[in-house]
Specification:
The chain is of the alpha+beta class. The protein has three helices and four strands; from the N terminus they run βαβααββ. α1 links the parallel β1 and β2.
Length: 108
């Protein structure tokens, strides 16, 4: 947002509403170019990230796995149900004792 009559309150409201930046007139053209370049790069990186995630999902989807038996289909179903919910767990032990890592998953 570019304005000649700015206040801190307006700047905060504009940024909350989705403005990329808040620039007061008179402004430096070089500063504006830098702001625009940064925003374009941010958008390019977001688009690239979406594309890469899509490519990974397609590459590692269950359709690309070899096992087609009923037992393997059940395994795939279980993986789908628990994906995103499995995380490693930490077993702290008693104070003053060595702590150790439990390799088993913790399902939330």
């Amino acid at each position: 947002m570019i304005t000649a009559y700015g206040s801190l309150k307006q700047a905060v409201e504009a940024l909350k509403a989705g403005a990329i930046d808040y620039i007061l007139k008179p402004f430096d053209v070089e500063e504006l170019k830098i702001i625009i370049a940064k925003e374009l790069e941010k958008r390019r990186l977001k688009e690239e990230n979406i594309l890469l995630k899509r490519n990974l999902r397609e590459k590692y989807s269950f359709e690309n796995m070899i096992g087609k038996s009923k037992a393997m289909q059940e395994v795939y179903s279980l993986i789908e149900k628990t994906s995103g919910r499995i995380r490693p767990s930490w077993s702290p032990g008693r104070a003053g004792r060595a702590r150790r890592w439990r390799p088993g998953p913790s399902i939330s």
